[in-house]
Amino acid sequence: MRNTKKSAKSKRECQSELNTELSKCTDKLKVLRSKQLSGDYSAETAREINILSYHMEVIENRLNGKFDDTYRCEMELSIPKTQRV
User: For the segment 62-84, what is each residue's pLDDT rounded down to a tens digit?
Assistant: First the structure.
């Protein structure tokens, strides 16, 4: 029973951290999109928006219990090593 309480606490802590990360990503995405709306149509800004959107999707899937380890592999294979955040 003690182990169950510990794992429940760990699960809540993990969910809290994921929600915090998702909130930070949402704020950063708003900044990037407003930057883009103000005229910055650079490939770098678009790339950052795409990566951040993908990161948010992964976080949401983890929160919903739909996380698949292949996400990371697919993402890393599709982005050149020099551009990874």
Answer: 888 876 555 555 555 555 555 55
